[in-house]
Amino acid sequence: MQNVQQTINLLEYFKLGGWAMWPLLLFSIMTLSLIIERFIAIFILNNLGVSAIYEKVIEFLNKKDIKGAIKYCSDFKKKYIGAQVLLSGLKMSKLGEHRMEKAIEAEAVDNINKLERGFNLLVALGSLAPITGFLGTVTGMINAFTSIANASDVNAQLVASGIYEALITTVYGLIIAIFAISAYYLYSYFIEKFSADIEQSGTSVINSILFMDSMENIK
Q1: 24: closest CA among 162, 142, 176?
Q2: In this structure, what DSSP letter does residue 53 have?
Q3: CB 31 within 8 A of CB 130
Q4: What is the mean pLDDT of the chain?
Q5: Around Cβ 42, how many Cβ atoms within 10 Å?
Q6: Can you give the pTM of this predicted structure?
Q7: Using one digit for the tens of pLDDT, what is the confidence trace for 193-206?
Q8: Which of these, 16, 118, 173, 206, could form a disulfide with 129 (CB 3.0-4.6 Å)?
Q9: What is the CA radius of gyration of the chain?
């Protein structure tokens, strides 16, 4: 065995980890790919801003200009999810409160589901990686103690080296889990914030339209 104090590069660490490093390598590639792919999908290909769009829509509704609000939201690109969600409700303004609510809810849920695509796999990788790492450590410890039992001369260096090598897979598994779970919670935070913002904005838009209709009926 190598001296534990010797400088070891990543490839040598990989070899020391044994069989468990192969599934951990696969998990690390999948985790990194998912983190990058979801970052692009959530923050680059889509725009989760709602407040500015909502305020402008309310301005149109205060002027009783639903057509202007519809045109304003229609002019946004599809990446502006907030505009698309509010637009779905505005188009149903003549069909009553229930239809507007259903349209906004359906559009919001559809877009949120797309944003959360791959989250279950990210959580699964965050759970499987440390378990796999721990399994690799257990099998490594068995091999290490087997070598110790068969050695004619047992010393502290031999024991420490075996345990050191066995623990490598646990470290790798925990690192993968930290990245996977951290990304999951970070992305979930932004999506939940968007969900809350769009729910509040959608409710306010519907109330504004209902108030406008009620004032028309009074006249």
Answers
A1: 176
A2: H
A3: no
A4: 87
A5: 19
A6: 0.84
A7: 999 999 999 999 99
A8: 173
A9: 28
